[in-house]
Write a structure and sequence with these properties.
The chain is of the alpha+beta class. The longest helix has 17 residues. Among the domains are: 32 residues, no CATH class; 47 residues, no CATH class; 63 residues, Double Stranded RNA Binding Domain; 53 residues, no CATH class. Strand 2 and strand 3 form a beta hairpin. The strands form five sheets. The chain has a four-stranded antiparallel β-sheet with strand order 5-6-7-8. A four-stranded mixed β-sheet has the order 9-10-12-11. The N and C termini lie far apart (110 Å). It contains 14 helices and 14 strands.
Length: 442
């Protein structure tokens, strides 16, 4: 009503005299109907530091360290163990004055009766229960992860799985898995807002069968950034060629910026011996055996881009054979260096058609004419010592003895000589323990 009167009086000056006279009677009538209380109260509001800020900001003022202190290295051990939720266990209407408040703690109407405000008996154990509840607080711990779920370093996100991308229409991304490669805080300086803080995430996703993609996402919170990066990586899938479902098709050299990577094909069972980011990408792509040497800059984004460029530029054996117009033959240690023809061209070159400067070495061809520098291994400093010579002389009779024993047991089930089949008495003088136990049981 008071605001209504103020608005009317402000407009009086703009009206004509007749209109003012007519409205003045209305104002007098309205003033007669108003209560006798004053329109404006001179009482001051009870506001201070403790009822202006929420509980989180109040606790932060006690437990945290200022920005200047953080820059000087203070507050490294500050944790949330002392922060307690003082609202936990509190119930409206229950306290020092236990009251029933109709419409707040109880319904206004109970059956046909109207509930009235009532005083409840005091609870002497209420303070004791609250103190016990608050004593249990303060043990803030991260959820313990199993060794399989851990990332590159403990509970941090890089290296951890965050599930497949969100389904879009008919694309459900079944069989896909996404892993975080990088999660960092970035700042952007604005002229009007100052330093704007955001979180940047790099995620790679794949189906472990030659289909993979990576992308970067940014957000105010880590979850938002990872979700954006995960969904974007599902939209940027590329096909990667995998040889015999376990390794790359051939050795290759790849480069992005100042980062150089030499990748080598390895036999089955070798494993992934490479940078941790490359290993994570291989796990998502479906590569199980690989060796990669990173030279130059170890910028994570450059390593990811360089490795994906190398995977995309791979050539199948048929493409190499057609390009060189030569047969592609494999000699590997696992097959006893038995020649295996991997691919043949439609028309093969003759010896006269092969140029003198043509690269015929497969490894050099895959590295685009480059030759990997293999440094000479120098003998250790103690090689010329007399004590080391005596040690080698004593170990000459025992050299490879343990390995030979293991090979014989794996092949024949016992330690035996190569003359055992012709001379059965060429067996160890001591029988295996299993036979002795069987005889003792009988």
């Amino acid at each position: 009503m008071a605001n209504h009167l103020l608005n009317i009086t402000r407009t009086l000056s703009k009206l004509t005299i007749n209109t003012k006279y007519r409205l003045s009677n209305t104002i007098i009538r309205l003033e007669r109907d108003l209560p006798t209380q004053p329109l404006f109260s001179n009482s001051t509001r009870n506001t201070n530091f403790f009822n202006k800020l929420p509980a989180e900001d109040l606790w932060k003022g006690i437990t945290s360290v200022s920005n200047a202190g953080k820059k000087r290295g203070r507050g490294k051990t500050v944790s949330r163990k002392n922060i307690k939720d003082l609202n936990k266990g509190q119930i409206i209407g229950v306290g020092k004055a236990n009251m029933i408040w109709p419409g707040l703690t109880t319904p206004i109407i109970r059956g046909k009766e109207i509930v009235e405000q009532q005083q409840l008996p005091e609870d002497p154990e209420r303070e004791k229960k609250l103190n016990m509840l608050r004593d249990k607080m303060g043990t803030f711990r991260y959820a313990k992860l199993s060794p399989i779920e851990r990332g590159w370093s403990g509970a941090k996100m890089p290296g951890r799985s965050i599930g497949p991308p969100d389904p879009v229409g008919e694309d459900t991304f079944e069989g896909f898995d996404s892993k975080v490669l990088e999660l960092k805080t970035v700042f952007n300086m604005k002229g009007n807002f100052g330093r704007k803080r955001r979180v940047s995430a790099t995620v790679v996703t794949g189906n472990k069968n030659g289909l993979a993609g990576f992308a970067m996402g940014k957000g105010i919170e880590p979850r938002t950034a990872m979700r954006k990066a995960k969904n974007r990586s599902g939209q940027k899938l590329i096909h990667v060629k995998i040889f015999r479902n376990h390794t790359v098709f051939h050795d290759f050299f790849t480069q992005f910026g100042a980062t150089k990577i030499f990748v080598s094909q390895k036999p089955e069972g070798y494993g992934l011996v490479c940078h941790r980011a490359i290993r994570t990408i291989c796990e998502v792509v479906g590569i199980k055996d690989l060796y990669a040497k990173v030279e130059g800059s170890t910028n994570l984004n450059h390593i990811i881009k360089a490795f994906f460029l190398g995977l995309v530029k791979q050539k199948t054996h048929e493409e190499i054979a057609e390009e060189k117009s030569l047969h592609l033959v494999e000699f590997c240690k696992e097959n006893g260096y038995f020649p295996t023809v991997l691919a043949s061209p439609t028309k093969c070159k003759t010896e006269e058609e092969i140029k003198k400067d043509e690269i015929l070495d497969f490894t050099q061809y895959c590295f685009d004419g480059r030759v990997i520098l293999k440094k000479k291994k120098y003998p250790p400093f103690y090689a010329n010592y007399r004590s080391y010579y005596i040690y080698l002389k004593k170990q000459e009779k025992l050299r490879n003895k343990q390995q030979v024993k293991m090979d014989l047991i794996a092949e024949y089930g016992e330690i035996r000589s190569f003359l055992t089949e012709k001379y059965p008495e060429c067996r160890p003088s001591r029988r295996p323990k299993k036979e002795e136990q069987e005889e003792s049981n009988d």
